[in-house]
């Protein structure tokens, strides 16, 4: 069986990367609000995604208060696409996966 990306297999990181893929650049505050997580929890997950180059950060101090803006990197988008494809290959054909030749329809593709 194909291994799933352990970094993205954590539910909050999956949500975070998927949200950034659709929403584009977001502030820390907006991510926290949208995902319903604490500062510490979001910070810990963002650090892991930053270290893996799945997410990048831009700091903006032009306003009254400095803000950090986070965005998905090309590597992060590729990782998300590969993760989704790997999940789809695990699903039965009637749920979006591809059936193996000669295998029952419920058997996941490999």
UniProtKB/TrEMBL annotation:
A Pfam entry, by short name: HTH_34
Coiled coil: none
InterPro entries in alphabetical order: ArsR-like_HTH (IPR011991), WH-like_DNA-bd_sf (IPR036388), WH_DNA-bd_dom (IPR027395), WH_DNA-bd_sf (IPR036390)
Keyword Hydrolase: no
Record key words, sorted: DNA-binding
MF GO annotations: DNA binding
Domain of life: Bacteria
Domain Winged helix DNA-binding, first and last residues per copy: 12-91
A GO biological-process term: regulation of DNA-templated transcription
Record bears the keyword Lipid biosynthesis: no
Protein name listed in UniProt: DNA-binding MarR family transcriptional regulator
Organism of this sequence: Rivihabitans pingtungensis
């Amino acid at each position: 069986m194909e291994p799933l990306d352990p970094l993205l297999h954590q539910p909050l990181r999956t949500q975070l990367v998927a949200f950034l893929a659709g929403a584009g650049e977001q502030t820390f505050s907006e991510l926290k609000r949208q995902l319903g997580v604490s500062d510490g929890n979001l910070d810990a997950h963002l650090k892991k995604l930053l270290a893996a180059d799945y997410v990048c950060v831009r700091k903006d101090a032009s306003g009254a208060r400095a803000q950090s803006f986070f965005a998905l990197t090309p590597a992060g988008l590729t990782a998300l696409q590969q993760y989704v494809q790997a999940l789809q290959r695990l699903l039965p054909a009637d749920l979006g996966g591809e059936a193996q030749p000669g295998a029952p329809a419920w058997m996941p593709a490999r």
